[in-house]
Amino acid sequence: MAHDIDIMLIAPRYLAGAGDPAWVTVPLHRACRWSTGEDRLTPQVTLTSPDQLAQLRLTPDPEPGAPWWTLRQAHHGEKRAWSMTFGARTPVELIAAVTDALTAPATPPAAPGEPYEPLRSAGWQAPRQHDGHTSDEGMVSPDGLARVDRIAREGGRTSTWVVETSVHDLPALWRAYVDGDTPPHLVGALFAALADTTPLVREPHRVPHLATAHGRTATGRVSADNLGFALEHRTRTLARRHTPPPPVTPPSGPDGPEPRRPR
Questions:
Q1: What pLDDT does residue 195 have?
Q2: What's the CA gap between 85 and 176, in Å, rounded?
Q3: What is the per-residue pLDDT for 124?
C-alpha cells in the first residue's frame, strides 16, 4: 500500500538545491539511448550519446566549489566543440532542460534572438555598474540572489557564460560555466529553465538553508507512488519523441479496393 511522504515546494527554483540526479540520467539512458560506462567501482556516472559525440559525466568531488556535472560535445564538421559544467547543488531540472534540448529529434533553426529574453521577461535586470549605468554583459534576478554574466575572452574568442546563486559575501550555492561555443538553443533552454517561476519539489531534509531563509517555501504531503511516477512519466514522454508515428492508412477511393458486400 502506498504511503504519503512530506515534500517542500521551493521558489525561486535556483534556491532548491540539487534534487535527484536520476531526473537527468535515467531519461538519457532509457529514452535517448545514451550508453553508460561499466565501471561500478567508482561513484562516477558517464553517459555517451549514440553518435559518440556528446558525453555527460557526473563526478562527485569533495573539493568545495568543484563542478560535479560536465556536459560536452566534440568538434564535428563545421560545429565547434563546446562544454558546460555545473556545481553539485545545481537544480537537476536546469541541467535536464539542457539535455532535453540537446536530445530533441530536430534542432531548432538558429535565430538572432536575444539570449537574455527569457530572463528579462521574468523580471531580471541588467546589473548597475559603479557609475550608475547598466551593463549588457549580465542579468540579475529580481531578488538579487542569482545572476548571469557574460565574460568576454581576449583575442576575438567567444565569450563564456557564468551562472550562479549566492547571498552577499557567502560562497555561491552553485555555479555553472557555459562555453561560448555552446549552441544558442541550449543556452536559451538553460536561461528559460532558470527564469521559470514554477516551484520545485524537494524532500524537506534536503532543502538548503538558503531556500528557507531567502526563498518561498510551502510544505505538503503526496503519495510516494505519485512522486515516483513523475520520473517514469518524464522518461516515457521523452521516449515518444524518438518513436515514429504509425503509418497513415490511405482512404479507399475510386482506385482503391472495393469494399466487400455483406451476403
A1: 95
A2: 5
A3: 95
Average pLDDT, the chain: 86
For residue 134, the cross-strand partners are: 128
Cβ atoms within 10 Å, residue 137: 14
Kindly report the pTM of this predicted structure: 0.86
- Amino acid at residue number 187: V
Contacts from 124-129 at CB under 8 Å and sequence distance 24+? 124/148, 124/195
Q: What are phi and psi of 149, to 5 degrees?
A: -125, 145
As given in the structure block, the three cell numbers for residue 168 are: 552577499
Residue 227 exposed, middle or buried by CB count within 10 Å (0-12, 13-18, 19+): middle
133-187 residue pLDDT tens: 445 578 999 999 999 999 877 665 667 999 999 887 778 899 999 999 999 999 9
Contacts (Cβ under 8 Å, ≥6 apart) of 191: 115, 116, 118, 119, 148
What is the Cα gyration radius of the chain?
22
| Sequence-distant (≥ 6) Cβ neighbours of residue 211 within 8 angstroms | 10, 15, 16, 17, 217
